[in-house]
Amino acid sequence: MADTLTLGWIGLGKMGLPISTRLAGAGRDIAGFDRDQERIAEAAAGGVTPAATLEDAAGRDIVFTSLPDDKALRAVALDGPLLSAMRKGAILVETSTVSPGISAELGAAAERAGILYLRAPVSGNAAIAHTGNLTCFVSGPRAAFDTFLPVAQDFTRAQKYLGTQEEARYAKLSVNLMIAVSAAMMGESIVLARKGNLAWQDILDVLTNSAVGSPMVHYKAKSLETRDFNSTFSCRQMAKDLDLIVGAGHAAEMAMPLATLTREIYGALIGRGDGEADFIAPVRLAEWLAGLGEPDLDKNDGRLA
């Protein structure tokens, strides 16, 4: 049955474009819509059927949204035509990182419209989205998840069903909190080692081969070998997610000291002009606070002397 499902994709941005073209490459019947005609053309080149309007993409068995923030989701799904354009009994799969609050609003509106709503934020970045190595956390009606699962397996390596309400939203925010705090810690640790006159590559090797050598540390150490700060997920995007994280924590009546401090680190990076740099850029801020310039890797391998 899953192979005959028709798919619609709304939002062909950094994540939506590679995921939708991967689904097309897997033989899925998928139509894509974005306000940017160039993105629609790129998706079409990857096998996605161009949708002239949002309504054309929404009239399918499973409709995905991949949108930048709460404001965009509200404009498309709550104030816009999405739900009214969908078939009753169709499945809406929302893949973005948004607040539990707006997600709950959408859940209530979808239920009134007879739409089955799955919260399915993906974990991973645009650099790997085309490879199928993303993961997704899912909450919503179990039967809808069972229908969606074969499609999810075409673009993710792991899928975790978590419950019927906003559990997936909290899971994604929890993961992103760990990533953000880890990036800030990694930056400060590297600069402490520089102050102790470790060579740049030596401290990266120490971190990756120690007890803290998580997959994220391994991944980011590789780009830091050449101080590559080209964005896979930007400081500005991380700041947005940290705002959601702190807001969710406060709504749950819990203190968020680490999240709040880390948000200020990313705010400082944005203020210094690093908003579009990769989220591992806290190393730059830590260097500046420590009175260090960027290491000359060619001349002294990052040592101070």
From TrEMBL:
<dbReference type="InterPro" id="IPR013328">
    <property type="entry name" value="6PGD_dom2"/>
</dbReference>
<dbReference type="InterPro" id="IPR051265">
    <property type="entry name" value="HIBADH-related_NP60_sf"/>
</dbReference>
<feature type="domain" description="6-phosphogluconate dehydrogenase NADP-binding">
    <location>
        <begin position="7"/>
        <end position="158"/>
    </location>
</feature>
<dbReference type="InterPro" id="IPR015815">
    <property type="entry name" value="HIBADH-related"/>
</dbReference>
<feature type="domain" description="3-hydroxyisobutyrate dehydrogenase-like NAD-binding">
    <location>
        <begin position="170"/>
        <end position="285"/>
    </location>
</feature>
<keyword id="KW-0560">Oxidoreductase</keyword>
<dbReference type="Pfam" id="PF03446">
    <property type="entry name" value="NAD_binding_2"/>
</dbReference>
<dbReference type="InterPro" id="IPR006115">
    <property type="entry name" value="6PGDH_NADP-bd"/>
</dbReference>
<dbReference type="Pfam" id="PF14833">
    <property type="entry name" value="NAD_binding_11"/>
</dbReference>
<protein>
    <submittedName>
        <fullName>NAD(P)-dependent oxidoreductase</fullName>
        <ecNumber>1.1.-.-</ecNumber>
    </submittedName>
</protein>
<dbReference type="InterPro" id="IPR008927">
    <property type="entry name" value="6-PGluconate_DH-like_C_sf"/>
</dbReference>
<dbReference type="InterPro" id="IPR029154">
    <property type="entry name" value="HIBADH-like_NADP-bd"/>
</dbReference>
<dbReference type="GO" id="GO:0016491">
    <property type="term" value="F:oxidoreductase activity"/>
</dbReference>
<dbReference type="InterPro" id="IPR036291">
    <property type="entry name" value="NAD(P)-bd_dom_sf"/>
</dbReference>
<keyword id="KW-0520">NAD</keyword>
